[in-house]
Design a protein that fits this description.
By secondary structure, the protein is mainly α. It has a single domain, classed as MetI-like fold. Helices cover about 75% and strands about 0% of the residues. The two termini are about 30 Å apart.
Length: about 280
């Protein structure tokens, strides 16, 4: 890694950490209540009193941005955890059992993946109530399929290893093989999938809230702030869309960047070394 790349990585981690800390300690950093309506301060641009301006109801944009970040990041984290757990369990069962059951489980995933994810999220959201728990369930139920397919593929490859075959000969049960030997080898992949899943969940929450079927309008989130800003862009209230959109974009780009760096770090040297040896021996 070059010195410039290392400095950029450190700056990215530190700046993202500052954003996370600001969101966590929002009550200590904000002066105005994010839900207080002040009709005498409607659509004020950024200034000394309201650092990032006010919205159409006179609510402080900075306060709503930090409190909304709590909602968006929490939903992203919890939805990622649920989707990773479901995907890993489903993929492990499919890859471990194999045969007809494996083919049936994969055809189910193919059928689900054939439906556009946004359409599937909208359909599921119509079934559940409009709150944070429902948004988490909707995002989780529409994002576990690629994880399951990737874990299943890795397990099928790992099953061919010599030590797995030897463990079967000495009487290891399928659960022991999965828990002690196979899943630990998938840990780097699971970690990378989890990190990248956070950005997907945050974007999905913002999309649903922007469409008006996600987080309730009275509860601040980055997606809700964008939904409220769209009707005021032509009137010159640029700050209503710029700051929440910037937070969403920055968070997604940063999480994806960290996921790529983590993937490079977890791409164990033995794989590169093995590839080099294979090339030399060939």
């Amino acid at each position: 890694m070059s010195k410039q790349s290392r400095y950029f990585s450190v700056f990215t981690v530190v700046s993202f950490g500052v954003l996370i800390m600001a969101v966590i300690f929002a009550p200590l950093l904000t002066v105005h209540d994010p839900l207080t309506v002040q009709m005498n301060s409607v659509l004020q641009p950024p200034g000394s009193i309201h650092l990032l301006g006010t919205d159409e109801l006179g609510r402080d944009v900075l306060s709503r941005l930090l409190y909304g970040g709590r909602v968006s990041l929490a939903i992203g984290l919890v939805a990622m955890l649920v989707s990773v757990v479901v995907g890993v369990v489903y993929g492990a069962i499919s890859g471990l059992i194999g045969g007809r059951i494996d083919r049936l489980l994969m055809r189910i995933i193919d059928a689900l993946l054939s439906i556009p994810s946004l359409l599937l999220m909208i359909g599921l959201q119509m079934v559940f109530s409009s709150d944070s728990v429902a948004v988490i369930l909707v995002i989780s139920l529409t994002s576990w399929m690629p994880i399951a397919r990737l874990i299943r593929t890795e397990l099928i490859y790992i099953k061919k290893d010599v030590f797995i075959q030897a463990s079967k000969i000495v009487g290891a049960s399928p659960f022991q093989l999965l828990y002690r030997h196979m899943l630990p080898q998938c840990t780097p992949t699971i970690i990378v999938l989890a990190v990248s899943g956070i950005s997907h969940a945050i974007l999905a929450e913002a999309t649903l809230s922007f469409l008006g079927i996600g987080i309730p309008p009275q509860e601040p989130s980055w997606g809700n702030m964008l939904m409220g800003a769209q009707s005021h862009l032509l009137s010159g209230a640029w700050w209503l869309a710029l700051f929440p959109a910037g937070c969403i974009m920055y968070t997604i780009l940063t999480v994806n960047f960290l996921g790529d760096r983590l993937q490079d770090r977890l791409a164990a040297p033995q794989f590169r070394k093995g590839n080099e040896n294979d090339w030399i021996s060939s």
